[in-house]
Write a structure and sequence with these properties.
heterodimer; A: mainly alpha; 10 helices; B: mainly alpha; 2 domains; 7 helices; 84% helix
Chain lengths: 174, 159
């Protein structure tokens, strides 16, 4: 229990300060709390489902399947899989991180999971539609053409920069 | 929608193999519990970011910025801000109408997407400090490259 409490230190401090802020009627406490509450509600609507899906993924999907398509021996096609998976990712990077960690534990290579995270940041479909309609289709097209190759190159670079110990720190956080 | 999908999938898998599905659900619930504090930390950071880096502030700051300083400011704000696409891009549209350059817009939106200060608690928990720092640094460099290419394309920058 003590260990669990330690994980919540920031949250506990936050609650105390917000409560104090409310008592002395500080505007910032009210504003920050409203943001916290509304974003918390947004997260509750879909993040638990993501973790349930990851749990099912871990039990149902064979390691061989992931290794074959996204592992060390997989070819160019694996990047395409990573991009397709990324473009359909919901939410934001905070969803991509647990998904990427689960893929890594199932045998996906580091360069593929970094490509997945990178493209999940820049290629999510709903976001791209907003971008194309408000800023322009050519803007989106150039951004994709420049950033996707850059993400793949940087992922390969990252794989080379990191050693076993660094990769060991990738956890599924169970 | 994802909740309906998850419920449907769980039901189908449950019919196929009860034991396996229950095991998966248990892992899932365990993960939710284990990750709760990390996500709460992120939500706290987001709450502060939304308060201090508001839409108005971004409009005010980026509205005047231009050149290298404008790009640096846009990249900095994009890195610390947190906004979903349906807020960020209409905002970018307003900035464009106000005459802000595509170069600055690209620096802002690309760092917003790729560099995450507020998602730091989650990223560090899953990938460790070193990977988190390297990934965010590389992302910042990539965002600058993207904004330069955008600038060249729209004829705002010349070599």
């Amino acid at each position: 229990m003590k260990k669990h409490l330690k994980d919540y230190w920031l949250f506990i401090i936050f609650v105390l300060f917000t409560a104090a802020g409310f008592i002395i009627e500080l505007n910032i406490a009210q504003g920050v709390f409203n943001n916290f509450y509304s974003f918390f509600l947004t997260m509750v609507k879909f993040v638990p489902a993501v973790f349930i899906l990851i749990g099912l993924f871990e039990v149902w999907v064979d390691k061989e399947t992931i290794e074959k398509h996204l592992g060390e021996e997989s070819g160019f096609l694996s990047y395409l899989w990573a991009i397709i998976l990324a473009s359909t990712t919901v939410g934001g990077l905070y969803v991509a991180f647990p998904v990427a960690a689960a893929l890594y534990k199932k045998g996906a290579s580091p360069r593929i999971i970094f490509s997945y995270i990178g493209t999940a940041a820049i290629c999510r479909i709903p976001m791209t539609l907003f971008e194309a309609s408000y800023v322009g289709v050519s803007f989106t097209a150039i951004r994709w053409m420049v950033s996707i190759p850059l993400v793949i190159i940087s992922s390969i670079l990252m794989e080379k920069m990191l050693d076993e110990n660094d990769l060991e720190s990738i956890s599924e956080s169970i | 929608m994802i909740n309906y999908f998850t419920a449907l999938l769980t039901t189908i898998l449950f019919i196929i193999d009860r034991e396996k599905t229950v095991r998966g659900l248990k892992i899932g619930f365990k993960k939710i519990r284990k990750n709760l504090p990390v996500f709460l930390n992120m939500i706290i950071l987001v709450a502060f970011s939304l308060y201090f880096v508001s839409d108005d502030l971004i409009l005010r700051f980026l509205g005047e910025g231009s050149g290298a300083a404008g790009v640096a400011l846009a990249g900095g704000l994009g890195s610390i801000a947190f906004m979903p696409g349906f807020v960020a891009f209409p905002l970018a549209g307003i900035l464009l109408e106000k005459g802000v350059s595509y170069t600055v817009i690209a620096a802002f939106t690309t760092t917003l997407m790729m560099v995450g200060i507020v998602t730091y608690p989650v990223e560090k928990d899953f990938f460790g400090l070193k990977i988190t720092v390297i990934r965010n640094t590389l992302s910042l460099i990539m965002a600058i490259i993207v904004s330069i290419v955008i600038g060249l394309f729209y004829g705002e920058l010349f070599i």
